[in-house]
Specification:
Structural class: alpha/beta
CATH topology: Metallo-beta-lactamase, Chain A
CATH architecture: 4-Layer Sandwich
Number of strands: 15
Number of domains: 1
Oligomer: single chain
Strand order of the largest sheet: 1-2-3-4-5-6-7
Order of helices and strands: EEEEHEHHEHHHEEEEEHEHEHHEE
CATH class: Alpha Beta
Amino acid sequence: MITKVYEDIYMIEVVLPNNPLKALNSYVVKGNDKSLIIDTGFNREECIDALFNGLEELNIDIKDTELFITHLHADHSGMASIFKEAGVKIYAGEIDGRLINEMTGIDYWERFEEFKILFDLERDGVTFSEHPGYKYCLKEPVEFTYMKEGKGIQVGTYFFEIIDIPGHTPGHIGLYERNHKLFFCGDHILDKITPNIGFWGFEENILATYFNSLAKVYSYDIDYLFSAHRNIIRDHTRRINELMFHHKERLGEIVHILKDGELSVRDVAAQMHWSIRARGWEDFPIPQKWFAAGEAMSHLEHLYCTGKLNKELREGKLFFKLE
């Protein structure tokens, strides 16, 4: 389905089969000599058909496009190899662009075996082979044109500034059109659903990073916030306030769960509230166990970094308890 969302800007709904996100909003900015495509969908047949049928309906040839990838997740970057083969310029942030290419190798995914032990997910028999990022990511590296804040992209009458908005991923970037008050934010801010804030390593308190990025965008003058899933947002400050409240509740929930004693990441995640059609943790699909444990871990680590929790590593597993 194609929707005109602004002058010379269109949204192509790219179906994401068997995925709770349901669809990706891929945006197309039409210009005179070139058009800019923002995010792609998974590297799988249904997504490819949806995106390229939309481009055909808009009378856009892939050779007359450039691709902008907001962040590393496979539902945003999965088709980059198709654009590479067509000789298209592909923009990405340096951090996430590097990680996208690392995801093409088995070493990246074998790190998930370490996380499986760290999170105590061995008990659930999870495997990275069932992770959608592994199944639908690029299979070979691509050459990116790296972008960072301070740079920009001209498309027709629009000039898009690159904005760094890390948190959902370590190197998430967005596009801001100051004159028209437009912001393409990828998964940084979503309506109706909340962006997953996973764990990316001990080098950074990623939840605090996300909070800082939300505060940054809060101050921007925006009329249309073009999110990558669900709704276009017309009041970004309202939604940011809601997201901040959501995470405050999440942190409080975890403190309450730990009131009776020490728990592993997996056991905290199993007791948290999740918007999923499952009778309990045992019924969670394997991909959702990965995402839930990762989000639990980012919140546990934030509570540890802010002095609310203690943690201990035993036999490769992390355990948390109240300070």
